[in-house]
Amino acid sequence: MLDIFSDFDEYIEIDYTYNDNNVFRLHYKATVIILFGFTVLLGCSQYFGDPIDCIHGEDVPENVMKSYCWIHSTFTLPDAYDKRVGIDVPHPGIDKHTPGENKRYHAYYQWVIFLLFFQALLFYVPRYIWEAVDDGKIKSLTQDVGPGVLQPDDRAECRMLLVDYLKSHIGDHNEYLLIFTLLEMYNFLNVVGQIYIMDLLFGREFTTFGIDVLRFTNMDQENRTDPMIKVFPRMTKCTFHSFGFSGDVQKHDALCILPINVLNEKLYVFLWFWFVVLAALSAGMLVFRFVTILWPAARTYVLKQKCDFVDMTDLNFVMKHIKVGDWFVLHLLTKNVDFFYFKEVIHDFANELKEDAKLNRKGSLEDYKALP
Prior knowledge:
Elements: H1 8-12, H2 22-47, E1 53-55, H3 62-72, E2 74-76, E3 104-106, H4 112-134, H5 137-142, H6 152-168, H7 174-201, H8 209-217, H9 227-231, E4 235-243, E5 249-257, H10 260-294, H11 296-306, H12 312-321, H13 324-334, H14 339-369
Antiparallel strand pairs: 1-5, 2-3, 4-5
Helix pairs in contact: 2-4, 2-10, 4-7, 6-14, 7-10, 7-13, 10-11, 11-12, 11-13, 12-14
């Protein structure tokens, strides 16, 4: 799966054959592009910029202190966030540390780009599986049937081939729908799970991060504490120990500026809102999926809404003789063919089913008369 970004241009181009839905595409396409873009942006800032600068005494070389604090992480003091900046403390979360006082270490900035890349892979997994399961099914069923592509006789021939496929595979698509439903459930659990995991990594501050930011923007400027500073502090502390000339252990405190967190906080504010909206849309899509699976009338209604021109007599007859998986294939067809073509498909499909029903009744009657 590591080669999924080998041809990024091909990945982001518009695919005119749809074998899923808009919410599904938000997961594997829009979200993956966003996360991958953030990975590149933060990677450039981290490895080609200046992600950390430390202020300290002259006893420790600057490059040594800077490298040490970057590798071993920095910390803030949670009790110092409520103190007055410029009076009690020099910066939010920065104060003199006393033994036993709680510290909050910040080491995420070292591996956040790897986390974002891994998140992108998790969002792409359903697409990878679904492409293998679909194996070009919908594309082959709808290929070259767009308006103006084929002559009427050729379109009629393609339509009859499609109807023959639908009739001969009635009841064979339930597993097809089941796998897609499981992947939709994965999408929902994945985005909710990623919100929870980031909440753990960011000190139980991420689940309400976006709400806290909105609340912060509406507060009085003189009586507010920026919630983004708690999660992504711009100023932190670092303690370095060394040996003095007499062999005793010496303690060196440094103030470290983290310019990279100015970028981190903006990106994760966006991700918070994006993930929340994505989770809500995914939940709504799951409700839609279960309603259409459990309620046959809802399936008929959905197809009718997709194609107002379809004859309801034909549609109702077709819906009585097919399974829920077959309906799912018809639903995907409506995304890839024009209304008039779909109306003709339903009409021909209904006629084929009626002919089969007549033959079955005739055969049953003849078998009945032949009984001794």
